[in-house]
């Protein structure tokens, strides 16, 4: 029934203001819509130039719901990466006496997991030095929100928010974050991006929480967590926002074993003791580098292990190990994202004096079905380390 309602709403949107009837003269509306929902994401900006009726249809939430129903939606991963420099740009920088000019310029890479195609989102107008380093990325309601990080030219923390609309393929600047914070947890809950914890400009760990509504463009303060959590990890599962581990101001680097869970319905937090007991001597694996929720299960990376969380047992178990590749070298600095029915794992493969991005897709095993690992090929333009990432279906 919901599919029928969404389809009819699409037709209503499409036919408004069209003289004499349908969306396009050459085809019946239902046939045209069947074709329209199968147009790849990168062509949606061009679709909006066809007519006002088509533009209103393509930007509607019903359009993207119908893409999902028809099996036409795609799975994507966004990554914050240093941009490769052309020889001309490099020569220009070498002529400068400012050391800051040698800092990399960060942009957003888009990986289409289904087609294995890589591309870059357009640069943000007015930002020749690109996005702040280590800014966080969250996809919500057809938009990508980039926030936080540091401006490399001054190493000042950034409160700036930039929003990319995948439908119009344009960037806009949103309202600044309410407070300065970095290394915070974040995730999409409904139409809001919730950010929690991290540290302020004085490196003081935070327990405060705020949310950005992509529909209204406004920030609001939410109920604070019980504990300070710097370098915490955020993930949303079943509509609840988990903030895992992190540490307090007085215990820097000593990661907590607990987690806190936010329920937006009551604007309240609950505590889960001992959710992250996986302590390690190696600082790189002492905290969860990233987590992803898929099909009601919570996955993470610990060292080179792919682990899954059992809420009933409040325990993690190893389900897979990241496969080695002798030719590309040892892999480290992992991140994990969930797209459709697969997990996308990225990391730096190090061999001799070189380090390049390696990307793998994993369909976890189930019953008698064995896990399936696939290497996602990548060209030379996208081999730099991905600092932060997020995934979405659209």
Automatic annotation (TrEMBL):
Identification of the protein by name: F-box domain-containing protein
Domain of life: Eukaryota
Gene Ontology biological process: negative regulation of cytokinin-activated signaling pathway; regulation of phenylpropanoid metabolic process
InterPro entries tied to this protein: Kelch-typ_b-propeller, Kelch_1, KMD1-4
Pfam families linked: Kelch_KLHDC2_KLHL20_DRC7
Lineage: Eukaryota, Viridiplantae, Streptophyta, Embryophyta, Bryophyta
Residues making up the signal peptide according to the UniProt record: none
PANTHER family per record: OS02G0208700 PROTEIN
Organism of provenance: Ceratodon purpureus (Fire moss)
């Amino acid at each position: 029934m919901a599919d029928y309602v969404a389809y009819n709403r699409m037709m209503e949107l499409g036919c408004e203001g069209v003289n004499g009837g349908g969306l396009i003269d050459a085809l019946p509306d239902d046939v045209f819509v069947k074709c329209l929902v199968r147009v790849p994401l990168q062509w949606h900006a061009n679709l909006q130039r066809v007519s006002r009726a088509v533009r209103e249809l393509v930007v509607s939430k019903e359009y993207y719901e119908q893409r999902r129903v028809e099996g036409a939606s795609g799975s994507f991963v966004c990554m914050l990466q240093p941009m490769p420099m052309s020889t001309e740009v490099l020569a220009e920088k070498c002529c400068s006496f400012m050391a800051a000019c040698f800092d990399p310029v960060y942009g957003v890479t888009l990986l289409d997991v289904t087609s294995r195609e890589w591309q870059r989102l357009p640069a943000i107008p007015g930002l020749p030095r690109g996005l702040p380093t280590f800014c966080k990325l969250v996809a919500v309601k057809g938009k990508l929100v980039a926030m936080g990080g540091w401006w490399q030219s001054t190493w000042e923390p950034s409160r700036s928010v930039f929003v990319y609309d995948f439908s119009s393929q344009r960037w806009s600047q949103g309202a600044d974050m309410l407070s300065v914070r970095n290394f915070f947890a974040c995730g999409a809950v409904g139409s809001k991006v919730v950010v929690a914890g991290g540290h302020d400009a004085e490196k003081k760990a935070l327990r405060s929480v705020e949310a950005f509504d992509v529909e209204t463009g406004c920030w609001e303060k939410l109920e604070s967590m019980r504990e300070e959590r710097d370098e915490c990890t955020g993930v949303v599962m079943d509509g609840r926002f988990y903030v895992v581990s992190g540490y307090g101001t007085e215990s820097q680097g000593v990661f907590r074993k607990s987690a806190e869970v936010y329920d937006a319905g009551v604007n309240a937090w609950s505590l889960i003791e001992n959710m992250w007991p996986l302590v390690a001597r190696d600082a790189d694996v002492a905290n969860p580098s990233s987590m992803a929720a898929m099909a009601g299960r919570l996955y993470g990376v610990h060292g080179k292990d792919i682990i899954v969380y059992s809420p009933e047992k409040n325990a993690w178990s190893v389900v897979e190990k990241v496969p080695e590749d002798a030719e590309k070298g040892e892999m480290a600095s992992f991140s994990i994202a969930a797209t459709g029915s697969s997990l996308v794992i990225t990391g730096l493969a190090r061999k001799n004096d070189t380090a390049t991005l390696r990307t793998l897709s994993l369909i976890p095993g189930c019953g008698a079905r064995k896990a399936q690992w696939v290497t996602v090929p990548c060209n030379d333009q996208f081999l730099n380390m991905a600092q932060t990432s997020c995934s979405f279906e659209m």
